[in-house]
Amino acid sequence: MNILVINAGSSSLKYQLINTEDESVIAKGNVERIGIDNPLLTHKRPDCDPVKIEVDMKDHTEAVQLVIKALLDADHGVIESMEEIDAVGHRVVHGGESFASSVIIDDAVIKAIEGNTHLAPLHNPANMMGIRACRQVLPDVPMVAVFDTAFHQSMPPEAYIYAIPYEAYKNYGYRRYGFHGTSHKFVSMRAAKLLNKPYDQLKIVTCHLGNGSSVAAVKNGKCVDTSMGLTPLEGLPMGTRSGTIDPSIVYFLMEQEDLDIKGIQDYLNKESGVLGISGVSSDFRDLLEASESGNKRARLALDVVAYHVKSYIGAYAAAMGGVDCVVFTAGVGENNPGLRADACKGLEFLGVELDLPVNEDAYGRNGFEGAISKEGSSVDVWVIPTNEELMIARETAALL
Fold first, then answer.
1. What does the DSSP assignment read for 162-199?
2. Helix (H) or strand (E) holding 88
3. Where are the alpha helices (DSSP H) in the chain?
4. Three-state SS for 144?
5. Which pLDDT belongs to residue 365?
6. Do 2-147 and 197-388 show the same overall fold?
7. What was the pLDDT predicted at 363?
8. C-alpha span between 180 and 174 (Å, rounded)
9. Cβ pair 139, 82 in contact under 8 A
10. Tell me: domain 197-388, CATH 3.30.420.40, correct?
11. Which residues, 6 or more positions from 24, have their beta carbon under 8 angstroms from its beta carbon?
């Protein structure tokens, strides 16, 4: 099957056309600045240089039309007719409690996604733009919604309930949901395959570390806990997000900095994290360079993140009654050996023993996949590149 994977933002649309028989990427691209000045489509296929197309587009429907046109183009296209697109898989950020797995999209599913908009007001409306646009341009093609939150729906109540009045959960759905579920599912399944062990008999901690970061505990193929909460703000310190803090800080800051609700949201989501600690950058590469040049706050920012990753690994080992494998993935997890080493240091009592030369040797090796633990370590530690688009394509093909 040829699956068109769509990830729609408020003014952007990323896509990949994937052949699920050999899991190859036939073409991929990104449409930027939809509905605003100077929109741009960057279209890539494996055997040629990227093609950049500048054309006015007022909405996501025109963006999808442009994507289809690029896929069909005589010079840089990869298919001869729209009939070669067998299905569309859509990334949807928040499924709430409505969806514990991926689903074929129909009117009832659309209504339920819209019903969860209050839980993800910035993301679900954008995802819905992509769904509506594809249904309009490809009305006869089956479509599937794959939710960032679905993999975490297997968490037990004691892991997802907040200690606030229970009515807040019953009336508004305020609970821990978790995100990056598609990534956590992909790398945990990949780890089981690489270890040649049954997925439903392993205890795995997956560390998705990027500009946005989360950790998940995957026991016997099911997520039992994860670090992000009702929103992606909870959990680890991230690029610009604070992660978990004392809630009273919110009130103190609003009073002392004279911030309104939007102001405190921007403060915690856009001005905090490693950017806020370091004062240098939200990019971990910049922090590493600044740290090596003697910037103490940049070093502190890296240490804070590593400490909290280590804390979650230990906590989730306790939650699962042990751990067989720790996986590092995403931009920072895959490319920052220093952070991996710092996060694992002190976990020897759990059986985590890193092979430091192998860990360092992985630096700069694009797409590196391999074990970085010592031979004989009772806990395997792996670097596994994530592939959320492939996971969406797999989920779509499986449903159809």
1. -SS-HHHHHHH--S---S-HHHHHHHHHHHHHHHTS-G
2. strand 87-92
3. 60-72, 107-115, 124-137, 157-160, 166-172, 181-195, 248-256, 261-270, 273-278, 284-292, 296-320, 330-335, 337-344, 356-361, 388-399
4. strand
5. 67
6. yes
7. 67
8. 18
9. no
10. yes
11. 18, 46
Beta strands in 184-312 (DSSP E): 203-208, 214-219, 222-226
CB-CB contact of 318 with 349 (8 Å): no
Q: DSSP 3-state assignment of 327?
A: strand
In sequence order, the 6+-apart residues with CB closer than 8 A to the CB of 293 are none
Residue 395: name the closest of 144, 174, 210, 211 by CA.
144
Helix (H) or strand (E) holding 32: strand 24-32
* Residue from 347, 260, 258 nearest 307 by CA: 347
> Would strands 222-226 and 143-147 be described as parallel, antiparallel, or unpaired?
unpaired
Choosing from 59, 148, 283, 303, the catalytic residue is 148
Q: What are phi and psi of 345, to 5 degrees?
A: -65, 130
What DSSP string describes 271-289?
Answer: S-HHHHHHSS-S-HHHHHH
- 261/280 Cα distance (integer angstroms): 26
The kind and range of the H/E element at 4 are strand 2-8
- Superfamily designation of domain 2-147: ATPase, nucleotide binding domain (3.30.420.40)
The residues pairing with 382 across neighbouring beta strands, listed in sequence order, are: 327, 371
Which residue in the block uniquely carries the two structure tokens 């905090």? Answer: 272
Measured from the Cβ of residue 298, the count of other Cβ atoms closer than 10 Å reads 24
Return d(Cα 174, Cα 185) in angstroms, integer. 23
Q: Please report how the helices 296-320 and 284-292 are oriented relative to each other, as an axis angle in degrees rounded to 10.
A: 120
Determine the Cα–Cα distance for residues 206 and 384; give it in Å rounded to an integer. 10
CA angle 355, 390, 218 (to 5 degrees): 55
Backbone Cα Rg of the chain: 21
- Are 42 and 111 in contact, with CB atoms under 8 Å apart? no
380-383/325-329 β-pairing:
parallel
328 DSSP β-pair partners: 207, 383
What residue ranges do the domains of the chain occupy?
2-147, 197-388
For helices 124-137 and 60-72, the axis angle rounded to 10 degrees is 50
Catalytic site residue 225?
no
Counting as low any pLDDT under 70, the low residues of the chain are 363-366
